[in-house]
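Entry 12.
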Amino acid sequence: MIFVDGKPFNIESSSSNKGADVLNALMECPFLVSATNSFKGISEMRFTVSAESGVERSTMSKWVYVFQKEYATVNPAIVDFVGTDEATTCVGIAIRNRKNGMISVAHMDFPDIIMKALSQMLSLVVDPASNAELDVHLVGGFEDVVLKENNHITGSGSRKKMEGYSFPLCYKIIKSLWTRPENFHLQTLCILQHNTRRDSEGNAYPIFNGLAVKTSDGSVFPASFDSTSRCPDEVVRRIRLSSSYEDPNSMGRLLEAYETQTDQFKIEPFRWSQWKQHMALSLQHLSDSEILQTCSTSPYAEGPDFVENERRQWAYIVEHPDWRETFPKKKPRIFTRAADGRWERCFN
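Predicted 3D structure (tokens):
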């Protein structure tokens, strides 16, 4: 059930697709429009771990970073911030329990995982013994749709079909929140047209690609992370994402890496196939523009480091063709937080 401004949200609709009507009504809701405009007025929080920053390591904030198709649930007594970025047609979602302060953040990338993904996120956020009031923030997705003529003709002429990645994903998220029994208080809806800017030629781009939650009070900010702060084990976790689409055990669910109670990352062993090695060798020879067209759902809207990130994954796979080099004795890669807030790998 979705609440807006403290009240259950519902609309009168005779449409066979009431979920889409709910999404459209929410996008026009004055309370959410005002909240989204306020969100847009917040300065973007930039996360980095730079040797030139001059920040004392012992005073650095502790954060947890979530990659595409990952989620993490954090305890505010342990972690200061949790967030994600690099979302173009993807959506970052944050859910916070008002009572206990537990927060789960996910980077949703495909409609078919939403129902299972929400259950995963809520597993440590909601106490089954109590009725939780949950604040929800959605940031990401933009107007990437293209209007195309449908093949069949109706009595009123050509029927136009909306095609794109962002709308089906946002629709499925809203529909799932609306039909689930929990009380979801929608606070931020910076998606689709509310998260779209256009250049002088009319090309669409997302305004924001990420969000971060301050765990002490649940406040949400636009956020970006650089390669030093998307940690730990950045390249291996990126490869895990692409490899997960070949793994039946990863289908229809979010990937886990962060362990809430111990405040550590545990990347379980996974393998990459000979086909993936062959693809890595082939893709290395593509030009930057060819990589964008081949590997992105929104080639004109990606960040400046997208191509570099793709190339680093392929270079790693070529250098380590046997996945067992990365996971000796088939053991997980475990990272614990050092006193200065950085992640350190544990070898056992």
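Annotation: The mean pLDDT is 90. The longest helix spans residues 166-179.
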